[in-house]
Automatic annotation (TrEMBL):
Protein name, per record: Glycosyltransferase family 2 protein
InterPro entries assigned to the protein according to its UniProt record, in alphabetical order: Glyco_trans_2-like (IPR001173), Nucleotide-diphossugar_trans (IPR029044)
Subcellular location: Cell membrane
Upper classification of the organism: Bacteria, Pseudomonadati, Pseudomonadota, Alphaproteobacteria, Rhodobacterales
Superkingdom, natural source: Bacteria
Gene3D superfamilies reported for this sequence: Spore Coat Polysaccharide Biosynthesis Protein SpsA, Chain A (3.90.550.10)
Residue ranges of domain Glycosyltransferase 2-like in the record: 24-193
A Pfam family: Glycos_transf_2
Transmembrane domains' residue ranges: 266-284
Protein's organism: Ruegeria spongiae
Length: 355
């Protein structure tokens, strides 16, 4: 999942949570343009935050991020910086817990360097989690945003069931127990119990973690009162890469745990296979073109509805955006699944080769 650029105001929770209970982790990699504003929004002049250890785990930034964080330590005495040699966000969070968590820390709040948070965000996450002793972690909904035509259309369609498959953390407005959501807070005893993030995952590490958490009996609470805005990719190519990686990450999770994917997750894969089969068989059986033509017609309808909803031609991008998300995700899923199967088939032959 990518960094959200801003966060909405949220409501607080009455359950008290002391600063010494909380540890904050902020992974960074070349975030010099954003880290000052992010840390100012998280810490600022809030007396509550003055007692909370905020740890920036840097993955080898080359743009001056490290120097900016070091300079900010004079303004924020509780701010710390550590190195994250593995570079990935999953490794950054694990490293913060392994090296910076003290015995008194009970709650970990995960924040993103590309984000601007409203006052009281860390406290709200910690207190929401503290208010539910049965919760192992806390998730928050994300609301898509965008400035240009492409981003605005993408932001609209991704928060609909067509774009998100009905995922509760994608623009959802109802709090409740979920299998997976955008990671905001963790109860540290549970984080350690399940082994933290799998650092071999560059994408989908959050869903993979939540799967292991569920197997161990942990529960995830989605607090719809604490919301994050996130900016959609600005170009078709960037959106394709993002969803390609999402698909590959989901396939890795399926393979690792031998899971049966949910029906909503397999729809893009089945649709992509159906369209490919229709195009390949068309010279022999033209009727097979009905599948890809029907899908294109559906995307056209989405574009027209998008134009109405966004009150202008920018909404016409909604159909192409949806097509990119569906097919990039499906292609990423299939390519990793196929490559993994090829490696598995080749392994017995390699193992049986005389030396």
């Amino acid at each position: 999942m990518q960094h959200p650029p801003s966060a909405r105001h949220h409501t607080g929770h009455p359950t008290a949570c002391a600063p010494e209970d909380i540890l904050v982790a902020v992974p960074t990699l070349n975030e010099a343009a954003h880290i000052d504003a992010c840390l100012a929004s998280l810490i600022g002049d809030d007396p509550f935050m003055a007692g909370i250890c905020v740890v920036v785990a840097d993955g080898g930034s080359q743009d001056g991020t490290v120097a900016r964080v070091d300079a900010l330590q004079s303004r924020y005495p509780a701010l710390r910086r550590i190195d994250n040699p593995r570079r990935l966000q999953s490794a950054a969070i694990n490293t913060v817990v392994a090296t910076m968590a003290e015995p008194g820390h009970k709650i970990l709040v995960r924040c993103d360097a590309h984000a601007i948070y409203p006052p009281g965000y860390v406290r709200a996450v910690a207190e929401s989690l503290a208010a539910r002793p049965e919760a192992a972690s806390l998730a928050t909904p994300m609301d898509a945003t965008g400035e240009g035509c492409f981003q605005r259309a993408a932001a609209w369609i991704v928060d609909t069931p067509l774009g998100s498959g009905g995922a509760a953390h994608r623009g959802g407005g109802r709090s409740g127990w979920v299998d997976h959501g955008h990671h905001a807070g963790f109860r540290l005893n549970w984080f350690r119990r399940v082994g933290g993030y799998d650092e071999s995952f560059s994408h989908n590490e959050d869903a993979e973690y939540d799967h292991r958490l569920g197997l161990a009996g942990g529960k995830v609470w989605l607090d719809a009162d604490i919301r994050l805005d996130y900016s959609m990719r600005a170009t078709p190519a960037a959106l394709w890469r993002q969803y390609w990686n999402y698909g590959r990450g989901r396939a890795r999770t399926v393979l690792k745990h031998r899971m049966r994917p949910r029906a909503r997750q397999m729809i893009p894969v089945i649709n992509l296979l159906g369209m490919m089969a229709g195009l390949i068989l068309a010279p022999l059986t033209p009727v097979t073109l009905l599948w890809p033509l029907a899908y294109l017609a559906a995307l056209l309808v989405v574009s027209l509805v998008g134009a109405v909803r966004l009150r202008g031609p920018c909404g016409l991008w909604a159909g192409p955006v949806l097509g990119i998300m569906h097919n990039a995700w499906g292609a990423g899923f299939l390519t990793l699944l196929t490559a993994s199967d090829a490696r598995r088939r080749a392994r017995p032959e390699q193992e049986g080769t005389p030396t």
